[in-house]
Amino acid sequence: MSEEISSTVEVKKVKKVVKKKKSVTIDDKINIEGERRDSNVQILDVTSLDNPDDKKAMDKDWHSEHFNCCQCDTALAAQRYVLRDDHPYCLQCYESVFSNTCTICSTPIGVDSKDLSFKERHWHEKCFACEKCGASLVEKAFGSKEDRIYCSECYDEHYALRCDGCNKPFKAGMKRMEYKGKMWHDQCFVCNVCAKAIGSSSFVPKDDTQYCVGCYEEKFASRCKKCNMIIVSGGVTYKNDPYHRECFTCLSCNTSLAGARFTTRDDNPYCQECFANLFAKRCTSCAKPITGAGGTKFITFEDKNWHNDCFNCGTCKASLVGKGFITDGPEIICPECAKTKLA
Fold it and tell me: Most CB contacts within 10 A, which of 3, 55, 206, 261?
């Protein structure tokens, strides 16, 4: 009987390798510098002239009673003032109209204070501190979350993503490996057997862990029954034993049997041609093998065999399939020819 090779078994290298490494997702950790007002804003003092009633400001000479705040009309002759867009303001009016409000204490950030800003929010220098530990963040890196600011240590402790290998946080600027929703530090993404960092190399995932290709093949990969080498990809299985496709061959001629029909004898596979030549019965008429392949029918009588197409009268050549016949030495003849021959 002919047999088909059982379903192909393949061991594959992993196709997805986490090669892309990303920075930790933390709002920009930057150093914020204290700022005064816009470049067109100046805080100035009035200069006295020889005449005590006269003053010099904005490169002009003024009577004391004429140099006033453009907002409240208060005389500016004896005090500091703020010049904005060529208009003088007393300090109180300027802060009331133009100063930003501190996010923490909700009071104006006066002209004598640094205005620290981040994402359209503003702080006094003394108010710019970590939400958790209270440490000053002036000129220091920080993280922000939900409109709150934190020092790097507190942000990492409470909000940073953590490595699935060591459970330590990813700090700003760190690279990480990602695979199927899990994340590792570059040095924590290692082979489960040899513990070597996988990095951007290929790996094979198995049972929620990962292996370098070499360790996986040594530990889990199938080995060919014929050559005992690891089957990396492809392959066939015969009688529960794995083979490379090129190793599963006819025992006689070494022709590959992968994907082909074959016949076995004593558990050894043979291509149909070799099996026929070595083991099949032979037709008494044409001497060719009778294989039975493709549903070929044959006839057996005593110790002789014929193909159906060869089972003919030795004299008239008429087919004797399904008919009576008479043996005449090594030949068979139909009854009509037998009568003629005996007459």
Answer: 55
Per-residue pLDDT for the chain (343 aa), expressed as one digit of tens each?
Answer: 333 333 322 333 333 333 333 222 233 333 333 333 443 455 555 444 344 455 566 667 677 777 888 888 888 877 788 888 778 888 888 888 888 899 999 988 888 788 888 888 899 989 999 988 999 988 888 888 888 888 888 888 887 788 888 888 887 667 878 888 788 888 888 898 898 888 778 888 888 888 888 888 888 888 898 998 888 777 898 888 999 999 999 999 999 988 888 888 888 999 888 888 888 788 888 878 877 655 567 788 877 888 888 888 888 888 888 788 878 777 888 888 888 877 6
Three-class secondary structure assignment of 217-279: HHHCCCECCCCCCECCCCCEEECCEEECCCCCECCCCCCECCCCCEEEECCEEEEHHHHHHHH
Alpha carbon separation from 294 to 217, 264, 297 (Å, rounded): 41, 16, 9
DSSP assignment of 45-109 equals -PEE-SSTTEEEETTEEEEGGG-B-TTT--B-TTS-EEEETTEEEEHHHHHHHHPPBPTTT-SB-
The pTM of the full predicted model, rounded to 2 decimals, is 0.39
**286-342 fold:** Cysteine Rich Protein (2.10.110)
CA 161 to chain centre: 19
DSSP string, 312-334: B-TTT--B-TTS--EEETTEEE-
Please give the Cα distance from 24 to 339 (Å, whole number).
Answer: 104
- For the chain, what are the domain ranges? 41-126, 286-342
Provide CATH code, domain 41-126.
Answer: 2.10.110.10
The secondary structure element, H or E, covering residue 158 is helix 152-158
For β-strands 326-328 and 209-212, DSSP reports them as unpaired
Mode of pairing for the β-strands spanning 209-212 and 116-118: unpaired
